[in-house]
Amino acid sequence: MFLGAALLVLTTCSVALGSDGLKPQIPSVASFKPSRGSFELSPVVQIVVDSKYASHGSPSLFDFAETFSDDLKDIIGYVSLAPVLLSPFVPGITFGIPTIYLTLDTSLNYKLFNGKTTDEGYDIEVSQDSLIVKSSAPLGVWWGTRTLLQQAALQLADGEKRVSFPAGSITDSPGWEVRGFMLDAGRHWFDASFLGDLCIYASFFKINEMHLHASDNLWNPAFLYGEGNEGWKHLYAAFRFQPPPGSPIDGLVPHKNESWTKQQFTTMQETCAKHGITVVPEIDTPGHSLVINQWKPELMENGAPDHLNLSYPETIPTIKSIWDEFLPWFSASEVSIGADEYDASLANDYISFVNEMSSYISSKTGKSIRIWGTNEPSKTMSVSKDITIQHWDFPGDDIPIQLLQKGYRVINSEQAFLYLDGKTSEGGQFPQELDQDLIWAGAPGGKGWAPNIFSPSDPSNNTSPDDPNLRGSIFALWNDWGNNATTALEIYYQLARSVAVFGEKAWAGSDVRQTALTRAQFDAAYPLLNAAAPGQNLNRVVKPLYGNVVLDLPGTHSVLTTHVPSVGPPYTLSFSVMPDDKTPSTGLLFSGTDSKLHVANLTFEATGQLYALGYVLPTHRFTTVEIHATREYTYAVIDGDEAHPRYWHTLMDIWGDYMALGNMSFAAPSAQIGGDGFRGKIKDVKLTLGA
After folding, report:
1. In total, how many domains does the chain have?
2. What is the pTM of this model?
3. 3 state SS for 64-123
4. Residue 258 annotated to the active site
5. Which residue out of 125, 258, 282, 341 is catalytically annotated?
6. In this predicted model, what pLDDT tens digit does every residue of 211-259 receive, in sequence order?
């Protein structure tokens, strides 16, 4: 279990030590009481799990310890870690080398801001010889290990040769129970392994939920509501859970190649759980149900192909059969049934359906449900208070302060603060990442957003951080324009900084703790921690051969495999190419794990979509091509003509109203040169970091 040097992307940022000896990190630590000395991580370190509690929890304390060991080696390249050791915990006893203990103390009692008990708090006790991470439950210990890793990463990024933790005691716990992000996977396909990597990354910032919106359709009013129009039958709609062959609901999945098998989803859930994140799945009904009605048109509400007819006798039994198939897949104690934007004139039908599904899912599995905030005008019925309401909109949604006062449990997903949209949004309504000005100082009083803040302008619509019914917050990234609008990595680029700033605010709030980060402290720490986040490589960072050069392959090639699977932007990929004049438009110039470049029209392929540059390579001579990419765009310079760069674009249908042009960012396809029937010559390939 030895590790070569881990690669850290160093920047000019520097994070100064706080007055207590800890570097400001994301999220901030509630309290640290320093003492004398420090615990230095020498090249040989032992991680010890208290054998009394090793098997407690699922994942267990030992499971978390093994992941922590891998992450420690990932971040600190100079350490050698022996296998994680099981041993009784005896305070003050070490093994002759620096020792990190992980243990439980069931007498510890951590509180959320509302006074409710949480298992996610932790204590860290640091002396010169040992470092002890303890909590009332394994999950709290896990978050304590994230604190240690961040401190280590910040020290190394600041040029320290060795990592040392100041002696003293840390006590920390989250302010709110729910701290999550939602990803619209209904309108955009994501591979399960990518979702697992997102969990690993988000966990580094103490996010504890990933809400997967797993069924939906593109919205085009002319197709959906045009009189006599049957365009709804062909409008893109998707259901991402793939039933086994022969299942009675097999026809529900129109895009089998864009759905998760049970094994794929289970593996992804396990990856997330091993990093402290619960996956909350959503199957959206009775609105947003076009994919169900394309399968069974008889369930459709007349004149609204994306709505279910709840009064039709077979509708609710069909929805129950869908949940029957997939509830055994889901490890979370809660699921979302969506239930937003339904016909207000059918309020009682809607409320009856929501309450019936709540009772049904609870009776089958013991799970509770969530629904998006709604405002169904009924004078005789109300949604059960067993259901959590995820508020998202003023004024179409119920007013959250009133819901809280009535005794409903509420999760804050208010779109004014917490909505993003893939690549663009109608009229620029939503930003590409969480609005930093709004998050840090846009709330009433200029104190910044926190989960108790629902309105940026009206304090009467906000509540206190200790509201007993406020469960926390989830920010959302929608994909209204479908698969072709973005690549999976572009979605990560939108999420990366947002996850971190949300992690701070959802854990520590804005004005409760004196130790909460300032914006300047966050801005200094974030790029360093983003670069160091262990267990995944969503930045697609690679170690150069020399300088900033990743590949340098002079001479002519037909098919060649490299050691570099993919390189994230910014980069420059240069080469010369002469296709065969007999088969000039087939085959690959380059391929990698995230993208491919086809010779035909210089077409990039990513996330299953094709993006043509529209340039036809001549067959009688070599053409020089330089591809430049950043996280915002990708363009080509042909034969050195820098005055006329050619950009790769996508064309997005904005709700059937107009077409919008967007730039595309692609990872460099660097795993293989040539292939897939390409005939011709490629020469002088060079891939460098920086655009």
Report:
1. 3
2. 0.95
3. HHHHHHHHHHHHCCCCEECCCEEECCCCCCCCCCCEEEEEECCCCCEECCCCCEECCCEE
4. no
5. 341
6. 999 999 999 998 998 777 788 999 999 999 999 999 999 999 999 999 9
